[in-house]
Amino acid sequence: MNLIPVSDIADLRISAFRDVKERDLTGRQGLFIAEGEVVLRVLASPASRCVPVAVLIAEKRLEALRDILERLPQDVPVHIAPQDVLDGIAGFHLHRGILALGRKPEPVDLGVFLDGLPERAVLVGACGIGNHDNMGGLFRNAAAFGAAGLLLDQTCCDPFYRKAIRVSVGAALRTPFVEGVKASAMVEALEARGFEVLALTPSASEALAELRPAPRTAILLGSEGPGLAPEVIARCRPLAIRMSGGFDSLNVATTSAVALHHLTAVKGL
Amino acid sequence: MNLIPVSDIADLRISAFRDVKERDLTGRQGLFIAEGEVVLRVLASPASRCVPVAVLIAEKRLEALRDILERLPQDVPVHIAPQDVLDGIAGFHLHRGILALGRKPEPVDLGVFLDGLPERAVLVGACGIGNHDNMGGLFRNAAAFGAAGLLLDQTCCDPFYRKAIRVSVGAALRTPFVEGVKASAMVEALEARGFEVLALTPSASEALAELRPAPRTAILLGSEGPGLAPEVIARCRPLAIRMSGGFDSLNVATTSAVALHHLTAVKGL
């Protein structure tokens, strides 16, 4: 372990961690900040698509994290600081006491990604997801149900935003995704490779529960307010999740889990 | 409408709305604070189990909210204030510009509640849910899938906490629930009335997806960390949500949606 004690919040060696709340909002060329033990564990694991660059932790967390930290490459600096110095660096009280700086993977090309998928595959396509909790939830659910990856349209928020990573419990660091794909191009590329593209929308007359999934299936999800654009829905097989009681409102990440469970776990319908 | 202009943050008539962030944490005898248009709409609707007591909104929101406000009882004061005064009263920037004070319904007795249920009913039992986002999500999903209500054990957090209400998109104000029920008493009371009690747990060998639900079914959910206690699971029919990819982690509210969808929408298995 490359341990580096830090006692001064102005220490230049930890400038990447300074005021992370503000910096998160402005983005950072090819890098991201992650927080918490669960996420650090993913970042240090072979499953991660991202490279750890540096770590900053509270002194008191060192022993409990030793097994994770020892799995980091030798050259990754592990800065340790008293909690108050850590809080001063981060710009807020960091009760988890764990920050990591990572490098994002190279962007994935849509065609190359799709061409590399197996005969049986489930994908999640997300359009207009601007809320980081929802983005994190989509990644968590995609990973939990073994989806091959996610396709994000050009209006989606960054899955490498600190909160999205945290809500994803690290899935954002390991599950492949393609960014910046227009919905129409998404549908076209998927259909060209034999995917059945399902549009999840409350307006559909067909129910998800009655679907017999094709070997290659993609589900398209829109944002909670406007949902998917009518012209996108028109190019897909629209499906609704049946609800009752006059309260037809599901969170978009929740919707992904209900659909993915049906696609991957409900056999022999 | 009983419109009352407010221009002074020290105005005693709006003291119930003062520093709501702090007060939320300490609780408030029989009252709760709700925020946002969607929740206000539920509070003002016949479906609400709660009584509106007072409203405080930003001046600029008045016209857009007129249809909701006119549905409130005549004696409910509608305080209107400039945005900066509103922010000063609330103690933080209230970008939604809408706060409502409501009165909680009378507590519901477990036996009385269960005895009033129809022959076909689905219930959600929650044990140890301490996170308000998750509590709100459980209510939202219970309402969306037409569950008859929720049973909360004595270690659950308050569903009338501001954030829980917001995440529930108002379901916390309309869906019946019984509080403070020990898990063992919950299982006993449910079984006595012919409910099959399912314990959702990753440790189960039986998969949710293969279940043929009984006419009366309750699903029990534990907190994300420790989950349900082994002695509770032992008294129920344990079911797992099948996951794959070595990432077996679902949010507890998400779990409720997957289970409720299976119980209420998947027919003819």
TrEMBL record, chains A, B:
It holds the Pfam family SpoU_methylase. This is tRNA G18 (Ribose-2'-O)-methylase SpoU. InterPro entries: Alpha/beta_knot_MTases, Ribosomal_eL30-like_sf, rRNA_Methyltransferase, SpoU_MeTrfase, tRNA_m1G_MTases_N. GO terms for molecular function: RNA binding; RNA methyltransferase activity. Residues 124-261 form the tRNA/rRNA methyltransferase SpoU type domain. Gene3D superfamilies: 3.30.1330.30, 3.40.1280.10. GO terms for biological process: methylation; RNA processing. SUPFAM superfamilies: alpha/beta knot, L30e-like. It comes from Brevundimonas bullata. PANTHER family: RRNA METHYLASE, RRNA METHYLTRANSFERASE 3. Keywords: Methyltransferase, Transferase.
